[in-house]
Amino acid sequence: LQQSGGEDGGSVVFPPVLVQMLDRLESEILADRVSEESRRWLASCGLTVEQMQNQMDPVYTPARKIHLYHCDHRGLPLA
């Protein structure tokens, strides 16, 4: 890992291998199917799957509204 700049981490450059591993780990955690390889890698870092789940941002799911209209034979809404 390389870091230059302040403590906010604005200029951190991660190696591509680490980025791929973390992307795969994130998708496995979201699918609730973490592989043994990922579990071993986390254990070698001193982490658990639960700790990683707690660090992840929640997945944004927008609120959905369904509007039902009574329509005439042409598909136009009636007042």
Give an overview of the whole structure:
- It comes from Escherichia coli.
- This is RHS repeat protein.
- The chain has helices spanning 16-30, 36-44, 49-55.
- By secondary structure, the chain is mainly α.
- It has one domain.
- It is elongated and about 65 Å long.
- The mean pLDDT is 86.
Short description:
By secondary structure, the protein is mainly alpha-helical. It is built from 3 helices and no strands. It has helices at residues 16-30, 36-44, 49-55.
How many DSSP-defined strands? 0
Radius of gyration: 22 Å
Strand content: under 5%
Number of individual domains: 1
**Number of alpha- plus pi-helical segments:** 3
| Average pLDDT number | 86
Q: How would the global form be characterised?
A: elongated
- Distance between termini? 63 Å
Structural class: mainly alpha
List the helices and strands and how they pair.
Layout: H1 16-30, H2 36-44, H3 49-55
Protein name: RHS repeat protein
Organism: Escherichia coli
Q: Which keywords apply here?
A:
RHS repeat protein; 39% helix; 3 helices; mainly alpha; 79 residues
